[in-house]
Amino acid sequence: MTYPVVMGVVGIVLMSFLLVFVVPKIAKIFEDAKATLPLPTRIMLGISGFLQNYWYVAIIVVAIAYYAFKKYKAKPNGRKFFDKMSLRMPIFGDMFRMIAVSRFCRTLSTLLSAGVQLMPSLDIVKGIVDNVVLTEVIEETRNSVKEGESIAEPLKRSGQFPPLVTHMIGIGEKTGELETMLEKVADTYDDQVETKVSTLTTLLEPLMIVVMGGVVAAIVLSILLPILKMNQMVR
User: Fold this and answer.
1) 15 domain residue, yes or no
2) Using CA atoms, how far apart are residues 162 and 94, in angstroms rounded to an integer?
3) Is residue 86 in a domain?
């Protein structure tokens, strides 16, 4: 995913350069010519003028928004809200869930294989999944196991763990091979996450090129329109 991020940064820098340095110089030519500018050009000049004269406002707004986001996310309700949303996000939600479930399964398998008892293992694992929604599910599972239930049933009831996971955990409990089943789930999900990341990267690269090309084309077009109009007037 590094390449799309780099492309995004380069695209933002390029567009900022065009709007802050190139567009104003061309705007001066239009002003001197007292030309009537098309709507797309006026919009582009408005954006350019704002970035030139009020760039600090944009930075302040972004900083305040980031600070408010961090403060809200640091609160229990805020953290739970964002963790819940992260699991429901289109495309990325499934990937985040797979990562958390893989972490849960692999860590629990390692602890059980090392001879750590189930209850202490669940206490440790619930702090590792890095998602409040799943942490609460693991805590409820721990309480259910304490009352004599299996691990698979409360995980299944929660609706937060995929059926494949709860099914394999259930088989592992019945056959006495829970550690092995947990390890298999973790391996399967790690492979799926790797495939999803590779697919997303492949899809994002051309999409970002199209988006950035479209924005740059819009800037260039807004500059060319009044020039073409002036040429027609001269003729």
Assistant:
1) yes
2) 10
3) no
